[in-house]
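Subject: for your reference before the review

Hello V.,

The reviewers asked for a structural picture of the protein, and I figured it would be easier to keep everything in one thread rather than splitting it across files. Below is the amino acid sequence we used in the manuscript, unchanged from the supplementary table.
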Amino acid sequence: VQLQASGGGLVQPGGSLRLSCAASGSFAGINDMGWYRQGPGKQRELVAVITSTGSTNYADSVKGRFTILRDNAKNTVYLQMNSLKPEDTAVYYCYMTGRDMVSRFFTAWGQGTLVTVSS
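And here is what came back from the structure prediction:
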């Protein structure tokens, strides 16, 4: 399973960005989809996750500003980021968990996409 993330870039404070992450390869199903981030000099933190049933969970720091969505038909997860702040600057990594074609669990990671919030 391979994940391809896109959508990062430079944005001014208060602006918006939408990250995407698409899965490819052979797998039986995907369970959780989510995003982590790692800012300069910081530990990696969970930003948002969405389960196969559509339940979501967010880091307190992004609640009310970020929205995680999934398109199961496209095996894609999105992170809509609004009201961006300089402290949101980080490399964002998508991940997915699921089962492969022989029912083994897997966790796949995207390559990371840089989000820079600066004026």
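For the response letter, the relevant points are probably these. The chain has a mean pLDDT of 96. DSSP finds no helices and eleven strands in the chain.

Happy to draft the paragraph if you're swamped.

O.
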